[in-house]
Amino acid sequence: MARRIPTRLGDGSLAEMTAAEIEADLYAGSEAAVGRAKVAPLTEDEIDHLLDIFTSPAKFSAVDYGDEVVLSFDGSGNSDIGAPILEQVVYQNHHGADMIELWHHDYSYKAVRTVLSFQTRMLKDTQQQTVVPLNYGAMPDLGRYSQPDGPAPNWSELLTQGRIQEARDAQLEAVEHLERDMWCVAEAMVAAGVDGLDFDTAGAAGDADLLATVRVARKVRDTWPYIGVEIGQAAELVLGMHGELEYEGTRLAGQWPLGQLKVCEAAGATIFGPAVKLNTTKSLAWNTARACTLIKPVTAEARIPVHVNAGMGVGGIPMTPYPPVDATSRASRALVDICKIDGL
Amino acid sequence: MASSHALASGMGGMRTAGDLVARMQMTRGMRLPQAKQYVAEKLGCSVEDLSDTIAMHDIRRDLGLGRIQVQDLSYADWPGAMEAKFHIAEVLDLPLNSVERFKDHAGLTAGAAVL
After folding, report:
1. Stretch A113-127: mean pLDDT, rounded?
2. CB distance B47–A66 less than 8 Å?
3. Is residue A60 included in any domain, yes or no?
């Protein structure tokens, strides 16, 4: 009887699989990405390497000497200490963070703008106490500008009523509000001494959300060429909530990670963060193979650093608040070894 | 999870030269091999040294680039956080926004540097 190896499902729960079952899942995960995104599958050598990683009985897995990458740690700090500046110091000193990020609990540029003076003061104080580069991060979060929480008509309701043009107009109205808030925060943070801005989970509300993000990114880079702009994506596919929006001639809806990269490069971003979500009922081998297949073409063509989102529920990391060490380390190593990423 | 990533694949932050390589990525958009090469040349060390805590411990001390404070290695006459960033800007030949704003607010320059 074949030896059963401890591994995990996408929800983090333990599962035991044979090496043959894991290998089959690696091929299936890669094929799942090929079928949707029209990318090349992983090679046999790459599958063999992933098989070595996922069939190892070791509790921990790591990259080879010299292959270490930069960890940008969006949303660094856990809010458990209750002292945001101190938490940045903890991430710098005790978690080996190469970059850190100050953020507000209500992780949205719309919310941040209402407490901006407090956040800029905190950022300035953080810069006095830390050495590693410091981002300020939040979500563009376009949905917050729709009624009843925001000023624009609710396009999700309009779409279900078949009022397509009104839904599109509402999104463009929201884009104007979002760009204004993102720019307001950017100006204040640069004045306070920030090293870079993180536009996190861009495209979460679809193509209009991403459009506002890349427009502001372009403006930031044109205004302050030495201020970094990291654009982290919300998912592997940009939803066409509007459907017709373009940035510099590229339609945003339906873009997979490689297309998202091109748009972010055109906007002047300095770091691109692809996000590939998990299927919680599939094995980590399946999910990691799928993520690697979608991200490999990105790193092959990128002109800017690629920092893959690898946290709870994305990038092969289980969808749980406390991702197990065995799972996290395997996904971390796999992304570096297979995709030749620049960071996480 | 943060520690798992740091141990599995991270450069090491201030324990090594991870923060310096990160600066070249975030401000110049350099890819990893290019950023590592740039920093190694500026520090006068090998690319391999950049991820070696022992090698970087001495290099950071000699260049005043800041080190993590630990009880037996922390001296008040060594550069603190803001002071270390002045050295980093000089060694990497890279304007740092926090340093330029500090100079501006402290009246150390006639005006803010154009970044």
Report:
1. 97
2. yes
3. no
- Other beta carbons within 10 angstroms of residue A35's beta carbon come to 10
What's the pLDDT at B75?
75
Q: Which amino acid is at A22?
A: I
- A87 vs A129: CA distance, rounded Å: 11
pLDDT in tens, B68-92: 877 666 678 888 999 999 999 999 9
Per-residue pLDDT, B71: 63
First-to-last alpha carbon distance for chain A, in angstroms, is 39
The CATH number of the domain holding residue A139 is: 3.20.20
Structural domain boundaries enclosing A185:
66-273
Which of B8, B13, B27 faces A226 most closely, judged by CB atoms?
Answer: B27
Q: Answer yes or no: are the C-beta atoms of A201 and A275 closer than 8 Å.
A: yes
Using the beta-carbon criterion (under 8 Å), do A328 and B1 form an inter-chain contact?
yes
The answer to whether residue A77 sits within a structural domain is yes
Residue with the two structure tokens 């990497």: B92
For A128, which of B7, B12, B81 is closest by C-beta distance? B81
Distance CA A97, CA A84 (A): 15
Of A221, A201, A218, A220, nearest to A210 by C-alpha is A201
Written as one letter, the residue type at B5 is H
**Which residues does chain A have within 8 Å of residue B19's beta carbon, measured at their own beta carbons?**
98-99, 131-133
Question: Rounded mean pLDDT of chain A?
Answer: 96
Residue A309 lies in a domain: no
In-domain check, residue A99:
yes
User: In terms of pLDDT, which residue wins out, A125 or B68?
Assistant: A125
Residue B113 has pLDDT above 60, yes or no: no
Provide the domain count of chain A: 1
